[in-house]
């Protein structure tokens, strides 16, 4: 073998050895990257699990809801482990009223979950202060508070905070109590006491509550308008859709308000739609006031609260399930027990979705109305 060929072979060997060293180096780098990725993935999963635990702590348990609505069901299916859908429940200790709501924060996953917890916190705060029992005003308060939280002000102007609004309302409420006591004492003679005096007081209290609601509505509109008088960097992505019902069991009344969401009542196969206002809770280019609607309930009525996730699910021939199909499905299954309806909704959802991914977070709640449990 000639010397030139031997040299060529040596060069090739050296080249092969170099390539082998490079391959081993890349393999080591890949292994380190894989270990780093596995560690980050594990930490991310642990964080998501912990976030899920925190979000569930904010949500009421179904057992709590069953105490208010014994014949009911709840479906809660986040698209990911955590999501932007949420639901709210409050039962007045005196059994005078029950509040139930379903909300849908923009986005899903971690951002949606953070917004959903913010929505629950605002609802809890409004209910805790008992600022108003008007569902439309509750949504207006949430909108005002959300605007304040995500404000982008370019001037030194600072609108009234929700706490300051509560403080103003508190003085109004104290005045209301004072006037009520004065009225009560002026009307009642301890020697000629009649139950009619109490009815007069309750009538007066209802009147004063309406007056306070009007004053609160004025304050909300005034503060909301100020946001449009200053330069604000509006971010439409921070908002909620919501349907909120205030039940008066002893009166068989439902007072309802909705923001981009409606609710349904089915009575003997007939569907009554409680429509919400086409506005989110948050900044919007053309804001409309949230309206409160009254609905007379009857024993056996079924009230459905839901986000838009079920009807927006892609399936079938690559199309949305749609509001029409959703209403027809509820009409078909409304005579089943509440557990039966829940299973039917689960089954049909799986059938419709097929191999498609879940499109959005899903929440559906059904309540068969009865006030027999109220003492």
Describe the structure.
By secondary structure, this protein is of the alpha+beta class. Among the domains are: 1-58; 62-130 and 240-279 and 294-375, Phosphatase 2c, domain 1 (4-Layer Sandwich). Helix content is 49%, strand content 19%. It is built from 8 helices and 13 strands. The strands form 3 sheets. Strands 2, 3, 4, 5, 8 and 9 form a 6-stranded antiparallel sheet that branches. Strand 2 (85-91) and strand 3 (98-105) form a beta hairpin. The longest helix is centred in the N-terminal third of the chain and has 56 residues, at 3-58. The chain is elongated, with a radius of gyration of 29 Å. The termini are far apart. The model is unreliable at 153-160, 190-204 and 229-236 (pLDDT under 50).
Key terms:
about 375 residues, alpha+beta, Phosphatase 2c, domain 1, 6-stranded antiparallel beta sheet, 5-stranded antiparallel beta sheet, 13 strands, about 50% helix
- Report the strand count: 13
In round numbers, the mean pLDDT is 80
Helix content: 40-55%
Query: Which word captures the global form?
Result: elongated
Describe the main β-sheet briefly. 6 strands, antiparallel
The fraction of residues in strands falls at: 15-25%
- N/C terminus separation: 108 Å
Which residue ranges are poorly predicted, with pLDDT under 50 across at least 5 consecutive positions? 153-160, 190-204, 229-236
Radius of gyration: 29 Å
CATH homologous superfamily title of one domain: PPM-type phosphatase domain
Write down the CATH class of one domain: Alpha Beta
Helix/sheet category? alpha+beta
Supply the CATH architecture of one domain: 4-Layer Sandwich
């Amino acid at each position: 073998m000639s010397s030139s060929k031997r040299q060529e072979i040596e060069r090739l060997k050296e080249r092969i050895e170099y390539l082998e060293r490079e391959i081993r180096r890349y393999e080591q780098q890949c292994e380190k990257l894989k270990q780093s990725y596995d560690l980050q993935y594990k930490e991310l999963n642990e964080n998501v699990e912990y976030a899920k635990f925190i979000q569930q702590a904010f949500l009421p348990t179904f057992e709590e809801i069953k105490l208010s609505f014994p014949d009911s069901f709840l479906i809660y299916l986040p698209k990911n482990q955590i999501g932007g859908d949420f639901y709210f429940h409050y039962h007045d200790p005196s059994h005078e009223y029950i509040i139930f709501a379903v909300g849908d924060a923009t986005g899903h996953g971690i951002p949606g979950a953070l917004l959903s917890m913010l929505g629950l916190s605002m609802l809890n705060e409004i209910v805790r202060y008992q600022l108003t029992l008007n569902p439309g005003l509750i949504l207006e308060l949430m909108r005002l508070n959300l605007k304040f939280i995500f404000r982008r002000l370019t001037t030194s102007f600072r609108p009234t905070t929700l706490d300051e609004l509560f403080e103003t309302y508190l003085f109004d409420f104290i005045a209301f109590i004072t006037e009520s006591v004065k009225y009560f004492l002026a009307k009642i003679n301890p020697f000629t006491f009649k139950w009619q005096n109490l009815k007069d007081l309750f009538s007066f209290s209802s009147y004063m509550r309406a007056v306070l609601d009007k004053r609160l509505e004025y304050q909300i509109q005034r503060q909301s308008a100020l946001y449009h008088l200053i330069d604000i960097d509006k971010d439409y992505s921070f908002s909620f859709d919501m349907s909120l019902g205030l039940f008066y069991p002893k009166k068989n009344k439902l007072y309802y308000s909705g923001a981009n969401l409606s609710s349904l009542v089915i009575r003997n196969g007939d569907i009554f739609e409680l429509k919400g206002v086409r506005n989110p809770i948050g900044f919007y280019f053309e804001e409309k006031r949230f309206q409160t609607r009254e609905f007379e309930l009857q024993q056996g009525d079924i009230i459905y609260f839901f986000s838009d996730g079920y009807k927006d699910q892609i399936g079938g021939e690559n199309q949305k399930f749609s509001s029409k199909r959703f209403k027809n499905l509820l009409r078909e299954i409304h005579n089943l027990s509440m557990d039966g309806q829940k299973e039917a909704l689960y089954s049909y959802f799986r059938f419709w979705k097929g191999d498609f991914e879940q499109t959005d977070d899903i929440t559906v709640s059904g309540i068969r109305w009865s006030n027999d449990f109220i003492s």
